Amino acid sequence: MLERSLRLALVLELALYALLAHGLVAASPVAIALLAVAGVLVLRAILIAFSYVCAWTWQSPAPRLGARRTLLMVLAEYAVSVLCFTVLFPFERLWMGKDRLSPPAGEEMVARRPVLLIHGYGCSRAAWWWLRARLGRTGRAVATINLEPVFADIDDYVAPLARRIDEVLAATGSDRLILVAHSMGGLVASAYLQRFGGRRVATLVTLGTPFRGSQLARFGRGRNARQMRVDSVWLQSLANPSASVDSLVVYSSHDNFVLPQTNLLLPGAETLRIDGVGHLAMLYSPRVARVLESTLAASDCRVMPAGAKCG
Questions:
Q1: Residues paired with 204 in a beta bridge
Q2: The predicted structure's pLDDT at residue 244
Q3: Which pLDDT value is given to residue 134?
Q4: Who is most buried in 75, 190, 268, 271, counting CB within 10 A?
């Protein structure tokens, strides 16, 4: 389980830094603890810096942001990385309760499609901590899923996704739902649509999905990382999901994980470019949230009863 593994890794990392600090400096226990925490933060900073070095090495043409916007983008990506991998993912059960698939007392989810959020590579359902809460404020059913094992074949995630889709539809009484997928999650959703078709899916929205792979995948672990290498055999065999359902591809021209950024595009699908947002920071971007809310509302309008007021 990712949660347990990340928690153990974090404890061991802190202990290692504390031992190194204790051996190098004469300091109080509090100071040593602070140095250990600083070590954790510095390592995450190095990893994010490395991702941006790679992003600028394999970059596609993109609008220039200027020094200030670039700095803010990198800092936001770093902050989200620290939040996810040191706070949310290792302690998922503290932050993520059960998905609410039924409306609050006295409220009905009339003509609202349920939403299923699918996380990306090396992450967990806790990646959706902020967006799940925001999308669910109107009483909409918003579900999540954990894709495990973490480094498995992407095709191995299709059956669990199919079961989760069936569970959400059964719990909500809806005939179809909306899939919102981040990064590798978009490939999992595409593989699902290739195998089962769009009978149970109304719309697919992808956020930063490497449809043609990423140069950064060469540094990843597991079968799924190898499948996400640029123009891999697995990616070439993947059918275009936009042929099965309405699809919206949301991507950042300054993505720091999917490289080059043109590999985020999906022929035949509607696309929306958002500049100045990092790969992980998309999950905490108000701009992305507004796009999702608008897309969900448009999907709701398509199933409103004749004569009913939409919006």
A1: 179, 247
A2: 80
A3: 96
A4: 190
The pTM of this model reads 0.94
pLDDT class of 101 with cuts at 50, 70, 90? confident
9-18, 249-258, 278-287, 293-302: the lowest-pLDDT one: 293-302
Tally the C-alpha atoms within 13 A of residue 37's C-alpha that lie toward its C-beta: 7
Residue in the structure block whose two tokens are 């470019």: 273
Please report, rounded to a whole number, the percentage of residues in the chain having pLDDT higher than 90: 81
Tell me, what's the pLDDT at 268?
83
SS3 track for the chain: CHHHHHHHHHHHHHHHHHHHHHHHCCCCHHHHHHHHHHHHHHHHHHHHHHHHHHHHHCCCCCCCCHHHHHHHHHHHHHHHHHHHHHHHCCCHHHHCCCCCCCCCCCCCCCCCCCEEEECCCCCCHHHHHHHHHHHHHHCCCEEEECCCCCCCCHHHHHHHHHHHHHHHHHHHCCCCEEEEEECHHHHHHHHHHHHHCCCCEEEEEEECCCCCCCHHHHHCCHHHHHHCCCCCHHHHCCCCHHHCCEEEEEEECCCCCCCCHHHHCCCCCEEEEECCCCCCHHHHCHHHHHHHHHHHHHHHHCCCCCCCCCC
Burial class (CB in 10 A: 0-12, 13-18, 19+), 29: exposed
| Alpha carbon 113 to its chain's center | 20
C-alpha separations of 201 from 6, 206, 270 in Å: 33, 14, 17
Question: How many CA within 13 A on the CB side of residue 226?
Answer: 8
Walk me through the domains of the chain, giving residue ranges and CATH numbers. Answer: 2-93 (no CATH), 94-301 (3.40.50.1820)
Structure tokens at 281: 């920071």
Burial of 306 (0-12, 13-18, 19+ CB in 10 A): exposed
